[in-house]
Design a protein that fits this description.
single chain; globular
Amino acid sequence: MGNTFQYLVVGVTVSLGLSFLVAYHLDRVRFGHALLRALYFVPHVTTGVALAWVWRWLYQPVPTGVFNGLLVWAGFPQQPFLRSTEQALYAVLAPAIWAGLGFQIVVFLAGLKAIPQEYYEAAAIDGAGAWRSLVNVTLPLLRPTIVFLVVVSSIAFLRIFDYVYGMTLGQGGPLDSTKPLVLKIYETAFGHFQMGYATAQTVVLFVILLAISLLQLRLLRSS
């Protein structure tokens, strides 16, 4: 459960921050806008298991791993990444965040396009700069979009499985440092054949997902 909520908190926070930053600047790009949007969306439609194996290769020590190769080239020591109990969870979370950015960017772009330009013109007449317009116009009007993405992303990170399974070979290691609740349910049901215990774990996950969905409805009604 601790790993699962760590995936949730870090994943949602980082992914929404990055996706909004990219979408905010991409919305102002006029040349090649459609191509850039498509390139950002490509990882989202790629199979998670394939991405997991590619990133697992990138994390390998030199001379195989690209990331460690870049660190050595820049004069830094190699990092254990997936072989470290402190770094493994974030190493697994990185491709999951990267793959989900495309969907979030597209939704943010749709929300930004839906904001009438009259609000920005009125803010400019009042002397508001880019920062004031962002804080007082863009973010408040994007609240339904943000709430929607928070809930959808929360459900996705609470159900994270394929990246953990592919990058740790189904073990959730090292020392269970990357094992989420869904992988625990899979292991309990199909590894130890304790179907009753796995069902109880599934009910716990369902209750958490239901609570987040109900929170979404309440926030959307108040926005």
